[in-house]
C-alpha cells in the first residue's frame, strides 16, 4: 500500500510548463515543485521529464539541481529517477561513502530478482562498470563473498518449501553465528541462493530449535562486519517492512536526524508499501510517522516528505 | 558466421505436417526430420513447435523423443530448444553428471551478459531452482567462488581499457597461478567482474611481462580444479573460437569420440560462428571439420551434424 497520492489524469505538458514557471524569476517556487512532483507516480514523472526536454530543450533533472538545495534537492533528485536508476545511484553513493554495505544488502535482499537485475543494468549504464565490480573492489574476505552473492543473486520465486533443507540449513546459519571455522561460506551459499520462501522457513526452523530468532542472536553476538551484514540480509529477507520501520526509527532518533536514510526509505517506498511501514511504525512507537517526520525536519524538505507520506495540505 | 543453411521462406504449418508424416507408420523417416529441422533457424523452429502443437495437440519435442534414439535424439533435442533453454539444459546435465564445471565456465564466459541472464531465467523456469543454487550445492572452496562469480556476472560491455589496472591485475593473476596464499580471491574478483575487453588487455599485459601466455602457464602448472577452471575461463574470455576448436578437436580425437561435446559445439554455434570455428579447425589440423566429423560419426547423427555444418546433400 502506497502513500503517494497521484491523480490519474495529468498533462505532462502542463506539468512541464508549470515547473518551468516555478523556476522563473528570483528564487524558485518550491511549493509548486512539490505540488506537482510530489503527486505524480513513476510513469507520470518520466512523462514530465520527456515533455520538459521536448518543450524547453533542457534536462529537467539538471535544472532542478541548479534550482533547489540541500536535503530537499537530494530527495527530489532521488524521487524523479526511475526506481532501478535511483537504486543504482544509492548503491554507488553507498560504495563511495566508505562502503556503507547495509544499503547494498538492502537493495539486494528487498528487491525482486527482476528488479535487482534492472538495478544492475542501470548501474552499468550509468557508471560503465558493474555493480559487483565496485562492490568487490571495496571489500574483501567473507564480507565481499556475502555481498557479491547477494548482489548477483537471481532467486527462484515460488512457494515450495523443503522442510529437511530448512532444518539442515538452520544449523548451517547457527554455525556461522557461532563463527565456527568454515561455516561462513556455507551460510553465504544458503543466503545468496535459496528462495526467500525457503529462507523464511529456515529462519522459522532456527527459532524453533534455538528458542530465539537468528536476528536476535546476531544482534547480541555480531562481532564483525560480516556478521552485521548477515544480520541486515536476514532482516531484509525475513520482513522488509519491519526492517524499514527500524531504519526510519533510527534515522529519526539520531541526534541531528539521518536525512539520507529517511529520504531513502520515504522515496523508495512511497509508491510501494510506505503505508504499511507507517502503520508498523505507529504500532511500535505510538507516534504517527508523519508527526515524527514533521518534528525532525523543516522547510521544503519537510513539506516534500510529508507530501510523499500522503499528508494532504 | 553461421554454417546453418535456412531458407528465408518456409511454412511452419507445412513443416509441422511433414514432420507428422515422417512419424507415421513403422519407424521414423529420419531423413525428413533432418531435411526440415536441420534447415530452420531458431525463430523458424519455434514457429514449427507452435504450429505442431496447434495442429496435432501434441508437443513436438516429446514426440521426437519417442521417435528417435541415441546421439541423434540428443542432438535434435538440444537443437530444437531456444538457445537460453538449451544452455540451461546443458548446465543442468553438467551439474548432475558429477559437476562438469568446464561447461558451466564455458556458458558463463562465452555468452554476452544479457544472454547469460536469459540462461539463468530459463534455468529457474525449468528447474524451479537458480543455476547458482545448484552450482553452489555441488562445489566448495575457491572453485565454488570462481564458478559463482562467473555464473552470476553481469559485465560491462565497452571498449575502454585501463592500462594501469591491466598491469596490476596481470600480477594478481600471476600470483594465483603461482598459488600464492590469498591470491585466489583477488583473481576471482578480477575474472568475474571486469569487462572482457579489460580482461583481454590484462592477459596481453601478462604475456608481455612474463614472456608466455597465462593459459600456457596454467596448462603447464594447473594443479587443482580451481586452476583448471581458471584456465577454461581465461580461454573462453580471451578467444572463444580457439577454445571451441580445441573442444571439438579433443572430442574427435578421443577414443570412441566424445559425442556430447561434439554435439554441444555444433548445435550451440551452428547459427553463430561455426564457420569461423571450422576454419580455425582446418588451419590447425589440415583436415576439414566436416570430414573429421563424417569419419568419426555414423548414421542419422552424422547426417544431422553435417547438415548443421552446412554440408548440403
Would you kindly provide a written description of the structure presented here, covering whatever features stand out?
Two copies of one chain form a homodimer. In chain A, α2 packs parallel to α20 (299-308) and α15 crosses α16. Chain A has 20 helices and no strands. Chain A is mostly helical and 313 residues long. Chain A has four domains: 12-68, Annexin V, domain 1 (Orthogonal Bundle); 83-151, Orthogonal Bundle (Annexin V, domain 1), CATH 1.10.220; 163-238, Orthogonal Bundle (Annexin V, domain 1); 242-308, Annexin V, domain 1 (Orthogonal Bundle), CATH 1.10.220. The first copy, chain A, starts with 11 loop residues before the first helix and ends in a 5-residue tail after the last helix. The A-B interface holds A 117, 120-121, 124, 128-133, 136-137, 140-141, 144-145, 148-149, 152-156, 158, 160, 185, 189, 192-194 and B 117, 120-121, 124, 128-133, 136-137, 140-141, 144-145, 148-149, 152-156, 158, 160, 185, 189, 192-194.
Gyration radius over CA of chain A: 21 Å
Span between termini of chain A? 20 Å
* CATH class (first level) name of the largest domain in chain A: Mainly Alpha
Which percent range fits the helix content of chain A?
A: over 70%
CATH architecture group name of the largest domain in chain A: Orthogonal Bundle
